[in-house]
Design a protein that fits this description.
Radius of gyration: 24 Å
Order of helices and strands: HHHHHHHHHHHHHHHHHHHEEHHHEHEE
Low-confidence stretches: 1-12
Helix content: 55-70%
Structural class: alpha+beta
Number of strands: 5
Distance between the termini: 80 Å
Number of domains: 2
Mean pLDDT: 91
Number of helices: 23
Strand content: 5-15%
Length: 486
């Protein structure tokens, strides 16, 4: 033990002051992106004229529950759930994020950002019910306790990164999906992912053997590489670079908002200051070295130790549930549920099953039931000749959510409210679209048609100029059509 201490003293740069300071600045950037992205959509999603007005949901919750509602739905909007409050939360979140970036009152700013995003997270259900949202919250919660001296918190960040990657891998096998066990998942992934970018079209054309190799490599990087995160220094570096490489490949071929960037900055905790100094410009090193580095007293050390034990225990239980498809019963289930409510320990399972068909829904409105005009979305595939877009790190919530409507009945309720909002020509909702064909008055009827979409190949695109081809599947039967009530 004494030998190890002397060795550490010989390498004064092997601490985590630079790593911690850089991580917090970058986390502030992620928070800024997240708050700005939801801020331009919040009224259309949860405002008074939005798809699912949150004030109405809060009133229903208050009518059916007692004081426990404040713990079961932890939001600041119990005070005020108006459109101004929703927008104010997003704007204040952006300010808190800027303070984190600038290292001004960073601890209060981290607490503020976490509380505000948790409030928006619950206010915007089901539109914020995704793993990048819970990952940001869990990361932001841990960041509140981060100091360069707290090796326990640094280890908790490694534990978070391990769970994110390992759970994503084992969920692919425990789901029993033959696309993963048979190494064919990437044969369709690039075509059927929610919002492809143009690179995805090209990668989809790669030979089958290369796509199968990529599938196997994905399982390797997600299931085996995470264990290297707890090994000695050079093993951790290898795990970091392999994880970063895979995140960069995903960024190049997918529109998964900020989750891959957040995963990359979590990899910082697999390095140390000695490694970071080799790649950071000297000027940036000096600025980060001047960043405040609060110490941690004995009482806080005990508190962080208890927190670490709790997160390790609950995280292990969630890995068990995910890997075995069994749920923990009794009081432990209640504890796990509350960790989910507050998003401080979460499950992560990115694409555990692969859909093999891309079904797109086309929304059409009419005044008379004879002439139909299509609504156009900003980002999801519509026109066949429209090139897929790069939209990261923005997360267009309605465009993304549309992908799920045909996959499971639980998505039908919000979709019905969405169509009703279009029948009302709600400005808050129509601004979420690229084109509203009824700018001067609402339609009387809405119908929904289903289409099977496929990427074209090189020859088809050369002939037609189309990125997509499609086949009509007929009316979307769960909601064949709606009529506006007078």
């Amino acid at each position: 033990m004494h030998h190890l201490w002397i060795k550490a003293q010989n390498y004064p740069g092997s601490g985590y002051q630079l790593v911690s300071a850089l991580f917090l600045r970058l986390l502030g950037g992620i928070y800024l992106i997240a708050f700005a992205s939801i801020g331009v959509q919040i009224e259309g999603l949860a405002g008074s004229q939005g798809i699912l007005p949150f004030a109405e949901r809060l009133a229903d919750i208050a009518q059916n529950t007692g004081i426990e509602r404040y713990f079961q739905t932890p939001v600041l909007f119990w005070i005020n759930a108006s459109d101004a409050a929703l927008n104010g939360a997003a704007i204040t979140g952006c300010i808190a994020a800027l303070l984190i970036i600038l290292n001004i009152k960073s601890r209060p700013a981290l607490i503020t950002a976490f509380v505000l995003y948790l409030s928006l997270f619950h206010a915007s259900q089901p539109f914020l019910n995704f793993q990048w949202d819970t990952l940001l919250l869990e990361t932001g919660f841990l960041a509140i306790f981060l100091t360069p001296q707290s090796r326990v918190v640094i280890w908790l960040f490694r534990w978070l990164l391990f769970r994110l990657r390992f759970m994503s891998g084992i969920s692919k096998l425990s789901s029993g999906d033959p696309a993963w066990s048979g190494l064919t998942a990437l044969d369709t992934y690039f075509e059927v992912q929610p919002l492809p970018n143009p690179v995805a079209w090209y990668v989809h054309q790669l030979p089958d053997w290369l796509l199968r190799f990529g599938t196997g490599a994905t399982l390797f990087v997600e299931i085996l590489v995470p264990f290297m995160m707890f090994l000695p220094r050079r093993w951790r570096f290898t795990a970091a670079w392999l994880t970063i490489l895979w995140q960069v490949l995903i960024i190049l071929t997918s529109n998964h908002n900020w989750i891959n960037f957040l995963t990359i900055i979590l990899c910082l905790f697999l390095f140390d200051d000695r490694a970071i100094r080799r790649v950071l410009p000297q000027g940036l090193q000096e600025r980060l070295s001047r960043a405040s580095a609060p110490t941690i007293n004995t009482a806080k050390q005990y508190a962080v130790g208890l927190l670490a034990a709790f997160i390790l225990f609950t995280g292990t239980l969630k890995i068990y549930e995910l890997g075995t498809n069994k749920y923990i019963p009794g009081s432990l289930a209640t504890m796990l549920r509350y960790t989910t409510v507050y998003s401080i320990v979460n499950k992560y399972h990115v694409f555990p099953t692969m859909t093999t068909r891309r079904i797109e829904l086309e929304l059409l409105g009419s005044h008379d039931g004879i002439e139909w005009k299509p609504y156009r979305f900003k980002y999801k595939p519509d026109r066949l000749d429209e090139r897929p877009q790069f939209i990261i790190p923005h997360q267009p919530r309605v465009d993304w959510q549309m992908w799920f409507v045909t996959l499971h009945p639980r998505h039908i309720p919000w979709f019905g409210h969405f169509l009703e909002a279009l029948l009302d020509n709600s400005p808050a909702v129509t601004t979420l679209l690229e084109h509203n064909p009824f700018p001067n008055g609402p339609p009387r009827y809405i119908r929904v048609d289903a289409w099977l979409y496929h990427f074209t190949d090189f020859e088809e695109r050369e002939k037609t100029g189309h990125w997509w081809k499609r086949t009509a599947l007929g009316p979307f039967t769960p909601l064949p059509g709606l009529e506006r009530r007078e």
